[in-house]
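Here is a protein:
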Amino acid sequence: MLDQAGALRTAEARGAAPQLEAWVPDNAEELLDTATRKFRETFDFYCTPRGYHPRANQGFRPHSR
């Protein structure tokens, strides 16, 4: 993972588009049945029109873990 993170940082520094990994699947209905309360509340806010914002991407950069 460390080598991958370094390669991604280097690629971004050279102008490549950032690689984003989803923090939640597109369809998390199955996941919500077994998810923690915190995850369900987070999903309910950010993945619904109530918390949606067009510039808030639903991913994270793998090198930011």
Summary: The chain is about 45% helix and 5% strand.
